[in-house]
Amino acid sequence: MALRFCSFNVLAPSARICAPLNRRPWQEWLPLPLGGEERHAAICDCLLQLEADVICLQEFDFAAGTHGFAVLYQTPGFSEGKKLGEVYELHMKQRTGDKNEGLAMLIRRSAFKDIEVLCEELEPDFCDRVAMYAKLTHVDSGCRILVANTHLTVAHADNSHDIPFCRPRQMEQVLHRLLAAQCCDAVFLCADMNSDHLEREPSGPYPPEMVNRPVTMAFEQGFASALHARHPGVRPISHTCSYAQDGCADYVLFRGHSGLQLHEAFLHPNDLPLDVPWSSSTGWGDDAQATLSDHRPLVVDFSIAAAHNKL
Questions:
Q1: What are the residue boundaries of the Endonuclease/exonuclease/phosphatase domain, all occurrences included (predicted)?
Q2: Which end of the chain is more exposed for a tag (fewer CB within 10 A), N or C?
Q3: Is 230 helix (H, G, I), strand (E, B) or coil?
């Protein structure tokens, strides 16, 4: 039975917007035909076209200046006249400390039942980071799965706490909740990790293995990265970065029983190479639909065998 995930940092309109995205409005309350220039309306359409069963978004905007942002994600959609809200159940969690952005999770209504969503505020509290967890029963297979969504603190090298303490502490909490889950056939973590485990350059005084510690913590607990498992020998670039080298900040990490099989993983658009560099003139490419954010959407396809109680 097929199971598709999408993890995407959509670059909140209230965030610092890099070129060339600073020349593209986030959204206007005017209807435009397919191919119009509103960035987040185009993101909504892209998400519909990708047809994921679970979509995990980071930098989902809650700012007063972007009133109606959540409404936009629930209503407009150009593909076949559909709307995201007609297909997906939307759950959101704003960061603490009056931060303007946070997380969102869209769960396909027809693919799951017995949906339970829990949100958590991560320590240390001065980082204002959060996580979302969804326990779901996959209708086709009968399997019970757990999906987490989070966005870790940026690896600031100009202080003594983010890299050695804050980020590992955040990952420790997320992993603890995932590993403590009972009666789950498979566990998935969709995240902007703000680090790339294939990076070999230090960040200030910190060696790469310390910067990338959150990712290796997941590996040590038996999780695998879908994108890297499907494309060994390639260093993908999913995020352009003003404070570090560009790299793969976005992960879909997974672990499960033998009935869970990874089939495909790609950065959208699939026809662009995984390691295509960011351009301040064209973003990810000449096609405006390729450059919706300073991240590329990560899409992963699994199959999962029927639960024993359905055999």
A1: 9-295
A2: C
A3: helix
Contact 203, 163 (CB under 8 A): yes
CATH topology of domain 2-310: Deoxyribonuclease I; Chain A (3.60.10)
Strands (E), 44-127: 54-61, 88-94, 101-108, 112-121
Please, what is the average pLDDT of the chain?
A: 91
Q: How far is CA 201 from CA 161, 204, 219, in A?
A: 19, 9, 20
Residue 280 tokens read as: 């301040």
Task: Copy the structure tokens of residue 69.
Answer: 């942002």
Name the burial class of residue 239, with classes exposed (0-12), middle (13-18) and buried (19+) by CB atoms within 10 angstroms of its CB.
Answer: buried
pTM: predicted TM-score of the whole model, two decimal places: 0.94
| Boundaries of every domain in the chain | 2-310
103 touches 90 (CB < 8 A): no
Residue with tokens 């870790």: 152
* Token pair for 109: 């209504």
Residue linked to tokens 């320590």: 123
Q: Of 304, 219, 290, nearest to 5 (Cα)? A: 304
Q: For tokens 């993908």, what's the residue?
A: 236
Whether the per-residue pLDDT at 35 is higher than 60: the answer is: no
* Integer CA distances (angstroms), 131 to 92, 94, 140, 152, 192, in order: 10, 10, 27, 9, 11
pLDDT band at 27 (very low <50, low <70, confident <90, very high): confident
Triad 179, 157, 94: Cα angle to 5°? 50
Element (H, E) at 162: none
Contact 104, 91 (CB under 8 A): yes
